[in-house]
């Protein structure tokens, strides 16, 4: 396919806009990898350091000369017509008798465009910039206008199918997660097991933070667990540790393995009340509680229940005056869970483990299909701009 230099199909334009302190200006940016032009802040003139900026119009090609080699470019959409940019964003106005802008919007997603921008960029590694004077020499594979329209329409339809496949994959994963939770709830509810409060099933232990100004208390061997560490259902270690001196000289308590940890304060509780089973000796901070189960309860079963009934726990979370979420200790102690025999608890945990195994298999298949979809896009673009669609 014939490659045409930019200077033959468009021109670099500079529509200067003097910045007035009281006027409002829509600013924009360009996403990497050809993902397009997007709106940023709407600013008053006095918030903009530059004395002048440049107007962009619908169907202009906008290029970020700092990141052009990573595909930071796109066609200006209708809703951003009239926005402004700095001189770090060269603006190209196409001859619309020769160029169909949606076709160019697809081309800037293609590796060949990024590579050519790199070849026209100069500077030290990591700070290469596209030279505006070289921009007119960048070439585009350009068939006749009607063929550009045909190719863009085909790519639009194919991308719609790919996006729909992505949405279906994400919906399937969400449905599986919901099924896991609801099926466990239904199983426990229909068995008519006795419900008992956390207060009758556990001893509760508070956490704390040794003085950070005392170096003798920190960088020891004892994990200090915080809400940010609660990313798995089992806690083995932490990214912060305290010393034996901190244990001896403060009232912070050492928790033994099989203690169930639960977050009781933090912004994560906007959507989740995390819990996990501790697998090694550790301490916790003041935003958490440790639950030590009695002989009628398996710690893994308690943790499973806290996740199965997480929505109910979440309904007990309160909002403090400064916006932080907290689960009152009294509410946690009064929270009830069904308590089957130890044998039945083990049976439920085995069933949940088997279901988790199936979910992981499906997740693996989903990741594989996601990668296949992602790999499909470059091959489609290669065919499109080689004239093979």
Question: Judging from the principal axes of the Cα atoms, what is the shape?
Answer: elongated
The first-level CATH class of the largest domain is given as: Alpha Beta
Residue share in helices? 25-40%
Structural class from helices and strands? alpha+beta
Average pLDDT over all residues: 91
Main sheet strand line-up = 15-22-19-20-17
The number of distinct β-strands equals 25
- Named CATH architecture of the largest domain: Alpha-Beta Complex
Instruction: Return the domain count.
Output: 2
What fraction of the residues are assigned to beta strands by DSSP?
15-25%
Which value, in Å, is the CA radius of gyration?
Answer: 29 Å
Query: Could you list the spans in which at least 5 consecutive residues all have pLDDT below 50?
Result: none
Short characterization:
35% of the residues lie in helices and 23% in strands.
Describe what you observe in this structure:
The mean pLDDT is about 90. Helix content is about 35%, strand content about 25%. The protein has a five-stranded mixed beta sheet with strand order 15-22-19-20-17. A four-stranded antiparallel beta sheet has the order 2-10-7-8, with helices on one face. Strands 3-6-9 form a three-stranded antiparallel beta sheet, with no helix packed on it. Helix 3 packs antiparallel against helix 9. With about 400 residues, it is of the alpha+beta class. The protein has nine helices and 25 strands. The protein has two domains: about 5-125 and about 135-140, DNA methylase specificity domains (Adenine-n6-DNA-methyltransferase TaqI, Chain A, domain 2, Alpha-Beta Complex), CATH 3.90.220; about 195-340, Adenine-n6-DNA-methyltransferase TaqI, Chain A, domain 2, CATH 3.90.220.20. It comes from Methanoculleus bourgensis (strain ATCC 43281 / DSM 3045 / OCM 15 / MS2) (Methanogenium bourgense). GO terms for molecular function: DNA binding; type I site-specific deoxyribonuclease activity. Belongs to the type-I restriction system S methylase family. One of its GO terms (biological process) is DNA restriction-modification system. This is Type I restriction enzyme, S subunit.
């Amino acid at each position: 396919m014939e490659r045409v230099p930019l200077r033959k199909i468009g021109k670099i334009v500079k529509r200067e806009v003097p910045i007035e302190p009281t006027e409002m200006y829509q600013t924009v940016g360009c996403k990497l990898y050809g993902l397009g032009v997007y709106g940023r802040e709407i600013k008053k003139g006095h918030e903009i350091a530059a004395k002048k900026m440049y107007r962009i119009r619908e169907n202009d090609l906008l290029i970020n000369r700092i990141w052009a080699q990573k595909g930071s470019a796109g066609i200006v959409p209708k809703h951003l017509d009239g926005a402004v940019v700095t001189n770090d964003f060269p603006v190209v106005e196409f001859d619309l008798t020769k160029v169909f802008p949606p076709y160019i919007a697809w081309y800037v997603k293609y590796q060949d465009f990024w590579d050519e921008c790199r070849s026209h960029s100069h500077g030290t590694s990591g700070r290469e910039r596209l030279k505006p004077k070289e921009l007119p020499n960048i070439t585009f594979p350009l068939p006749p206008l009607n063929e550009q329209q045909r190719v863009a329409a085909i790519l639009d339809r194919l991308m719609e199918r790919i996006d729909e496949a992505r949405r279906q994959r994400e919906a399937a994963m969400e449905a599986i997660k919901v099924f896991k939770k609801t099926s466990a709830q239904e199983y426990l509810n229909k068995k008519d097991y006795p419900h008992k409060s956390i207060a009758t099933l556990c001893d509760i232990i508070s956490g704390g933070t040794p003085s950070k100004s005392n170096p003798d208390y920190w960088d020891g061997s004892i994990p200090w667990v915080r809400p940010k560490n609660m990313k798995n259902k089992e806690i083995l270690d932490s990214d912060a540790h305290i010393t034996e001196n901190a244990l001896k000289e403060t009232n912070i308590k050492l928790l033994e393995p099989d203690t169930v940890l639960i977050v009781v304060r933090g912004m994560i509780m906007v959507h989740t009340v995390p819990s996990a089973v501790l697998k090694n000796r550790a301490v916790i901070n003041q935003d958490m509680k440790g639950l030590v189960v009695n002989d009628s309860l398996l710690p893994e079963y308690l943790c499973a229940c806290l996740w199965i009934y997480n929505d109910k726990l979440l309904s007990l979370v309160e909002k403090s005056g400064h916006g932080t979420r907290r689960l009152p200790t009294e509410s946690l102690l009064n929270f009830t869970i069904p308590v089957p025999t130890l044998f039945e608890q083990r049976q439920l945990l085995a069933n949940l483990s088997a279901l988790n195994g199936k979910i992981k298999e499906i997740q693996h298949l989903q990741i594989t299909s996601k990668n296949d979809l992602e790999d499909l896009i470059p091959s489609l673009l290669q065919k499109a701009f080689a004239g093979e669609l």
